[in-house]
Amino acid sequence: MPDAHERGTRQALIEAAVEVIAAEGIVGATTRRITDAAGLPLGALHYWFATKGHLLEAVAEHILARIAERMGQAGQAPDLADQLLWLFEDSGRYAPEEQLAFFEITMQSLRAPAPVTSRTGQGDVAGFGEKMLEPWRAGADATLPGGFPALVALVKSATIGMWFERLSLDEHDIRPGMELLAELLRHVPRADPTD
Length: 195
What we know:
Blueprint: H1 4-28, H2 31-38, H3 42-48, H4 52-74, H5 80-91, H6 96-111, H7 125-133, H8 137-143, H9 147-168, H10 175-186
Helix pairs in contact: 1-2, 1-4, 1-6, 4-5, 4-6, 5-10, 6-9, 8-9
């Protein structure tokens, strides 16, 4: 079991990777740039992460854990639509570097033939939206043309687009778009969580 100092080293590498990915993109986020940003020798990165892919997985898991924490807070909202609105309003409260890094990793995940985070699947960015929308699976399959895959594609496309808008235009108000998406989701039957 790593001690507190070693866990701090791993966390420093993850946080440095977030900063470098946000500034340089995934291609520009070389292991050397990441270790330089963390103020650590290159060997430290290879001690903790066998490959750059494993580091990207850890970064995705770190960001997804923070999103899940916020989702727990958003979970007080009555439905997914309200949860999405809460998350977007809340997203302004956390680091823009994390938002950019998450966007970069998401885009890489969509471009790659397999998710960036394929080692454990826990941080699988591509599967995150499906997990969030699972309660709507049966309702979407029964009522929507294209069923559940169409619902997932719609929510992913809309949220990625609105996140990108928010990142690129500070003054842009994404609330009307989120409210429209929320209204659409309210018309899809949801499984009773007590079933």
